[in-house]
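Table S2 (text version). Query chain:
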Amino acid sequence: MLHDLTLDAPGVRLVPLSEDHAPALLALIDDALWAGMSVPVPRATADMTALVRAAHAAPGRLAFTVLGDDGTVRGSTSFYDVDHGQGRCEVGWTYYGREWWGGSTNPACKLALFAHAFDGWGMQRVALRADARNARSIAAIRRLGGVPEGVLRSHRVAPDGSRGDTAYFSVLADEWPAVRRGLQERLAH
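Corresponding structure-token output:
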């Protein structure tokens, strides 16, 4: 869905995903980076523009472009399955250019997203998920403070038609203060 929410954290700014960001986002992507996504690898700006339009069309999804302090496009992330009545949402559709893997970009983005979800919206649960084969993403979610909940077997269809399992994690409202401290400490170093 279209939105006007902007979020800030140390070193990053999350701005509404725009078709104008499509060329810069496309330049970050390669086959290995995109592995585990449920849509085909975008190969042209038109493919990425179609993904932006799909994000805007998805009810309950607020998609962001991640910018560095200098305005450089670093990637994208989203809130989705936002359900204010149930006090829950998910954070995902996340990818960053390789240059920002393992640094402060992901913890800063999650700090901004979790803070908005828990402190702004009053959510009780924020879930995260990853393809069960994606060890890098699973390790990153664990480092953020995500608590493993289990694996949903044959939960999604990959672009090649194969079925994949999904590993689920969450952070609950009463866990949020400790998770926030952990993210702040990571960003302080």
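Notes on Table S2: The CA atoms of residues 22 and 48 lie 5 Å apart. The longest helix spans residues 105-120.
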